[in-house]
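pls design
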């Protein structure tokens, strides 16, 4: 007697925590069902643990379809229809159309359904059960979405892990604390931009220093025991850019930038910035708001601004308002301006020509340290200068290290 080759399919989603639907319970029910069925041979278990039933984009289900095609199995057994899926349209299509064409027998134990002989049940009862399962999934999705939004509005972080540079607070997983080791790298990246380094130069330098990428760093300290995929092993300009553009480093938590289309379609879509949920002062900043804005100005390269990143920009400050200095082109020359003046005219311009400022800085350095520098480069600035104050009358004050 030829035996049926049985595939036992088990599934549970992340949102479900009922003991009745546990993988262990599903396995026991299926094993008990097969115990006295001599014409059935259990070939393999297919277990999608942590996957929604609203679509069939699940790794083990995909493997099951391949094995059906290769004729390794010809019977599918599930505990109940909800374990197979909760999208009543897709579930119905598989049971009523696809499996019969593939000559696959489908059995749902708790629903007392066997596709080999139960046509009445197929036509009338199964569609109703599938719709009930679909409505359940929709209701759960709505409740989870509402609960998560409430937490976000309350300023609670609901993601899996903290962003690079931070760790989840041991006493409150919805808050961050600074991860000093990673935070040093974040600060270094911002500082390098202000010193004139490009994103390519920064990524190359980090690779030369053998600094772990955020993904590898997270894998090294995976205290949450997350199931992590293999991360990128080398820094690249895009990786650096994501850090430079992430406002989280100023202490701001922004959530709700993306969302799933709906409970059936899990495609991720972008959300309009007006609907983002923003929590100010959520955690300790690694980068000051002033420094962050300064870097964004450099990255954005707004019209009229110099396309070259200037090595002095990170050191210049307005004597009157204390804000940063920016560089702007005009009539073939480059000038430094107070950023407050350019943005909203809340200060005077503090305008000084780039060549004049460099000449002044060189003269001051040569006199103070008895040197004979003829030009300024990053190493000189890094070695001697802490800050350069620019006054409205074009005088400067250098604060040395």
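designed seq:
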């Amino acid at each position: 007697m030829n035996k049926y080759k049985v595939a036992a399919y088990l599934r549970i989603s992340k949102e479900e925590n009922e003991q009745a639907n546990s993988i262990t319970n599903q396995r026991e029910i299926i094993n008990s069902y097969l115990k006295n069925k001599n014409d059935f041979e259990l070939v393999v278990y297919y277990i999608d643990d942590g996957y929604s039933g609203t679509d069939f984009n699940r790794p083990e289900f995909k493997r099951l379809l391949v094995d059906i095609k290769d004729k390794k199995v010809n019977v599918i057994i599930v505990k109940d229809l909800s374990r197979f899926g909760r999208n009543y349209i897709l579930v119905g299509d598989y049971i009523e159309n696809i499996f019969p064409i593939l000559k696959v027998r489908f059995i749902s134990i708790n629903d007392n359904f066997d596709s080999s002989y139960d046509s009445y049940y197929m036509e009338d009862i199964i569609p109703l059960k599938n719709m009930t399962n679909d409505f359940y999934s929709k209701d759960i999705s709505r409740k989870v979405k509402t609960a998560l939004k409430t937490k976000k509005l309350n300023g609670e972080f609901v993601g899996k892990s903290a962003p690079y540079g931070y760790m989840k607070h041991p006493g409150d997983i919805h808050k961050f604390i600074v991860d000093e080791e990673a935070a040093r790298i974040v600060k270094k990246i911002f500082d390098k931009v202000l010193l004139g380094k490009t994103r390519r130069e920064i990524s190359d330098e980090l690779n030369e220093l053998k600094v772990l990428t955020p993904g590898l760093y997270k894998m090294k300290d995976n205290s949450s025991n997350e199931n992590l995929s293999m991360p990128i092993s080398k820094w690249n300009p895009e990786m650096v850019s994501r850090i430079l553009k992430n406002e989280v480093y100023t202490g701001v938590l922004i959530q709700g930038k993306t969302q799933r289309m709906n409970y059936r379609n899990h495609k991720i879509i972008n959300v309009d910035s007006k609907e983002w949920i923003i929590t100010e002062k959520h955690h300790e900043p690694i980068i000051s708001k002033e420094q962050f804005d300064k870097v964004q100005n450099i990255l954005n390269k707004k019209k009229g601004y110099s396309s070259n990143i200037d090595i002095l920009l990170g050191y210049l400050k307005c004597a009157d308002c204390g804000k940063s200095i920016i560089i702007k082109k005009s009539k073939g020359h480059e000038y430094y301006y107070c950023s407050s003046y350019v943005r909203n005219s809340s200060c005077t311009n503090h305008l000084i020509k780039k060549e004049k400022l460099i000449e002044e800085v060189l003269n001051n350095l040569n006199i103070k340290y008895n040197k004979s520098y003829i030009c300024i480069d990053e190493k000189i600035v890094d070695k001697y200068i802490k800050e350069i104050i620019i006054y409205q009358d074009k005088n400067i004050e250098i604060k040395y290290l």
